[in-house]
């Protein structure tokens, strides 16, 4: 392999510039169909509202859900939702690999000099998903005025970093799902169990999950780390069994683990595709 | 500089095997090996224009996937522009342009012009280099009239010209066209061919073309590779091919009664259909005449109707196959 | 015979759907994970409320969740686009020229799909639920025949609503907005996320005035024995009324819309 050389790339624009041009062009294009953009954005906003209704209805029937009252459960929902919707905005299209394969888009992506994942994120960026992110932000901000938090340095640190690590964890799950779908094209719905199931579980108080689920969704697909466990620290509460509150300091570790898993599976998935011929 | 030679494509005993699982009635599945590409060796030098023809399923698309780095070979060696396609896929992508006739690489919801700008960004071309090139392609392929139309609203001919422009934005050294003229009307075909001739004269681009239309080959290529059942059946000039097969005509006869495959002295039976009620005879017009072949057939069976056809690619391949068996 | 034609359509659809085995297995596994999460959170609410909410105890909650997970694919909670796509491509004109009723033929096909999906995607989640978190079924003998009738009506209501939303494409090209609106209202009001019975009062009023609970909450109530005897008959009666109303409404829609089609299409 030593003889293999690359052509000079000195006169090319930088990678960052090239991504920026791509994104700008996608945004411009989506803003040209204004009415359908707004319909989709409003829709994605209300889809998020709908999921919140479940938490709301349950808590009109009970004072606490998994030991959290309505305001506290809403804080978990809001932070998880903000992280999830950022991940969905950036990585949402990666778990539709079977569609890319069936439409023959994947081959077009593979004959271009940009990494596949980067192309999916930039060249197919869906601005309408921003509606969802807006809802997450809205709920999180409203809840901050409502729930009683002790605004010390730790709380502020956790409030800022939790949605970011949450986005990283959910994003890794999207990429992991995409990687697996290279193998199970027809059975891609399987990955819904940890992508959308993970999102569902991550929006709930982790204490409300049955123990096996709590372990699965913390130590394999660590979605309780996207909101619930950091919230335990902010609220000064103890966690349930298997979920001590100090885990709330470890989202970077969980994010690192999921990205490692996602990167390995994605790379092997692409290699599987080029090996099997699709 | 890249390699010592000017080879753009080097294939050495290239192979690709697929495992096909077929369900046999019940729940049992039988795995079968299919040799889509079965030991192809060839070399294409910079500046050549090569037609790559064969019947459907002969291994053309599989070869192209291996050349472009989308598919790993099962055996043998492939080099494209001096690179190993799969491990160096993204580096190679800067050197090649590919048009898959059946699938689009344009953005369907965007105006055509936008796709070119996006591709220039993906290839990280500075605006100073991309803009004049895009203008040149727009002019060469006469795209002005529908530049601001979303791609999904374009006619097939318009879209295909757009696809060719998209594949050329980054000035690739090698252009691979997979069935570029399929479904196009005569005028669109001719316009595309005319452009490709000019483009090659100006840029020296190497061209690899698969097609079902022999006139694409006649207009664009000096050299032809014929692939059959994953093996090369012919590699040489178009004139050489026409000396062997393209001059071959096929006489198709409809018989009054179905017959097993008939054999006649001056022609080769290249196919029977309708349980033997229709049979095709291939012959070289410089050695015999249609009347002679007809007379020979009439001597052994009653002929009801006949047609005389120029050979399609499938027939060329079949004739080459029969010649190789006889020799 | 006319009925035979519709039976053929139904069985063809049954066979078509049964070829996607891997998809079926994948769907069941995802359904099961969601079932456990849904049961978890409902059960956590029961614990918080001191044991029961609106008559739901642990076993009833588990039954509600697992029957729901089992039935959601069969009832067809996920949308379909086939009819609106055929309207947009103009193929609907071909359908209308056939000597077979459009509504009834799609209805028959949907029954074929449901006849496969209900056992294929429903049985395993229900068994898993029974083994892990326990189920409570009605002790009444009438629950089985009445439950099947209720299920058939739920499939019909779900079909008619989806068909109706698809028919909107006769008037406007962009039906996607209406489809999304339908999906939102349906998932909220059908009792899919949480049972209609535990909705706060105002939301319950809105839900019971809509056909949505009849396509999901009702068959679950009848089969699980939450409603028995005269109450069960009344639930099925309401479903029947909605089926008739929606069948008539969609026929009217097609009649009005297809006359437009003739004028426009020319």
TrEMBL record, chain A:
Alphabetical UniProt keywords: Membrane, Transmembrane, Transmembrane helix
Transmembrane helix as UniProt keyword: yes
Pfam families the record matches: ABC2_membrane_6 (PF06182)
Presence of keyword Cytoplasm: no
InterPro entries associated with the record: ABC-2_transporter-like
Transmembrane segments: 37-58, 70-91, 130-149, 155-176, 215-237, 243-266
PANTHER family, sorted: INTEGRAL MEMBRANE TRANSPORT PROTEIN, SLR0610 PROTEIN-RELATED
Listed name of the protein: ABC transporter permease
Organism: Microlunatus endophyticus
Automatic annotation (TrEMBL), chain C:
Membrane-spanning intervals of the chain: 20-43, 63-80, 114-136, 142-161, 181-207, 227-250
Pfam families attached to this UniProt entry: ABC2_membrane_6
Keyword set, alphabetical order: Membrane, Transmembrane, Transmembrane helix
Name listed for the protein in its UniProt record: ABC transporter permease
């Amino acid at each position: 392999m030593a003889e293999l050389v690359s052509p000079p790339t000195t006169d090319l624009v930088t990678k960052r510039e090239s991504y920026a041009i791509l994104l700008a062009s996608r945004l411009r294009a989506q803003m040209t169909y204004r009415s359908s953009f707004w319909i989709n954005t409003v829709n994605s906003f209300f889809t998020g509202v709908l999921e919140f209704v479940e938490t709301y209805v349950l808590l009109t029937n009970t004072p606490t859900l998994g030991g959290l009252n309505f305001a506290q459960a809403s804080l978990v929902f809001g932070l998880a939702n903000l992280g999830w919707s950022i991940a969905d905005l950036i990585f949402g299209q990666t778990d539709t690999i079977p569609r890319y394969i069936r439409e023959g888009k994947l081959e077009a992506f593979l004959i271009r000099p940009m990494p596949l994942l980067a192309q999916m994120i930039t060249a197919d960026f869906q601005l309408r998903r921003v509606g969802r992110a807006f809802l997450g932000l809205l709920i999180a901000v409203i809840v901050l005025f409502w729930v009683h938090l002790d605004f010390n340095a730790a709380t502020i640190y956790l409030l800022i970093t939790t949605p970011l690590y949450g986005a990283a964890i959910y994003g890794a799950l999207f990429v992991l799902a995409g990687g697996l779908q290279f193998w199970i094209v027809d059975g891609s719905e399987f990955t819904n169990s940890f992508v959308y199931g993970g999102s569902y579980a991550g929006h709930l108080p982790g204490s409300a999950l049955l123990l096996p689920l709590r372990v699965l969704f913390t130590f394999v697909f660590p979605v309780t780390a996207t909101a619930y466990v950091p919230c335990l620290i902010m609220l000064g509460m103890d966690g349930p069994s298997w979920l001590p509150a100090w885990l709330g300091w470890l989202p970077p570790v969980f994010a690192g683990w999921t990205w490692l898993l996602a990167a390995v599976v994605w790379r092997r998935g692409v290699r599987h595709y080029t090996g099997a011929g699709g | 500089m890249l390699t010592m030679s000017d080879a753009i494509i080097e294939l050495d005993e290239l192979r690709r095997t697929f495992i096909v699982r077929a369900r046999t009635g019940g729940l049992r599945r039988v795995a079968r090996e299919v040799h889509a590409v079965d030991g192809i060796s060839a070399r294409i030098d910079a500046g050549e224009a090569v037609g790559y023809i064969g019947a459907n399923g002969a291994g053309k698309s599989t070869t192209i996937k291996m050349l472009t780095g989308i598919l790993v070979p099962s055996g043998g060696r492939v080099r494209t522009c001096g690179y190993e396609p799969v491990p160096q896929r993204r580096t190679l992508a800067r050197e090649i342009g590919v048009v898959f006739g059946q699938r689009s690489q344009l953005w369907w919801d965007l105006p055509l012009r936008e796709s070119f700008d996006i591709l220039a960004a993906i290839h990280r071309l500075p605006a100073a280099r991309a803009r004049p090139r895009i203008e040149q392609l727009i002019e060469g392929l006469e795209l002005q009239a529908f530049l601001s139309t979303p791609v999904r609203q374009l006619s097939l001919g318009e879209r295909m010209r757009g696809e060719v422009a998209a594949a050329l934005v980054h000035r690739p050294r090698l252009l691979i066209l997979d069935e570029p003229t399929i479904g196009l009307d005569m005028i669109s075909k001719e316009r595309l061919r005319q452009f490709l001739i000019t483009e090659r004269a100006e840029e020296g681009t190497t061209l690899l073309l698969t097609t079902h239309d022999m006139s694409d080959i006649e207009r664009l290529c000096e050299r032809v590779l014929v692939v059959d059942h994953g093996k090369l059946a012919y590699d040489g000039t178009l004139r050489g091919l026409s000396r062997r097969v393209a001059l071959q005509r096929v006489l198709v006869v409809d018989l009054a009664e179905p017959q097993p495959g008939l054999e006649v002295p001056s022609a080769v039976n290249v196919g029977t259909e309708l349980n033997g009620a229709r049979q095709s005879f291939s012959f070289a017009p410089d050695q015999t005449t249609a009347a002679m072949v007809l007379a020979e057939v009439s001597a052994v069976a009653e002929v009801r109707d006949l047609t005389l056809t120029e050979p399609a690619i499938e027939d060329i391949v079949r004739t080459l196959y029969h010649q190789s068996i006889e020799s | 015979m006319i009925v035979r034609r519709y039976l053929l359509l139904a069985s063809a659809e049954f066979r078509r759907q049964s070829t996607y085995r891997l998809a079926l297995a994948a769907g069941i596994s995802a359904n099961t994970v969601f079932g456990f999460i849904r049961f978890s959170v409902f059960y956590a609410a029961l614990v918080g409320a001191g044991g029961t909410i609106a008559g739901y105890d642990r076993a009833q909650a588990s039954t509600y969740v697992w029957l729901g997970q089992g039935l959601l694919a069969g009832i067809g909670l996920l949308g379909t686009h086939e009819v609106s796509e055929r309207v947009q491509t103009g193929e609907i004109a071909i359908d209308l020229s056939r000597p077979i009723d459009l509504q009834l033929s799609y209805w028959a096909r949907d029954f074929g799909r449901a006849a496969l999906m209900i056992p294929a995607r429903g049985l395993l989640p229900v068994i898993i639920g029974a083994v892990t978190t326990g189920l409570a079924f009605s002790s009444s003998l009438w629950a089985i025949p009445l439950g099947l009738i209720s299920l058939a009506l739920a499939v019909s209501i779900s079909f008619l609503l989806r068909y109706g939303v698809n028919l909107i494409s006769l008037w406007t090209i962009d039906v996607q907005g209406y489809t999304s609106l339908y999906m939102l209202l349906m998932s909220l009001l059908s009792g899919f996320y949480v049972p209609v019975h535990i909705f706060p009062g105002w939301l319950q009023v809105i839900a019971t005035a809509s056909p949505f609970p009849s396509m999901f909450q009702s068959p679950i109530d009848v089969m699980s024995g939450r409603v028995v005897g005269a109450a069960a008959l009344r639930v099925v009666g309401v479903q029947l009324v909605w089926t008739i109303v929606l069948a008539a409404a969609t026929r009217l829609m097609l009649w009005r819309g297809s006359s437009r089609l003739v004028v426009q299409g020319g």
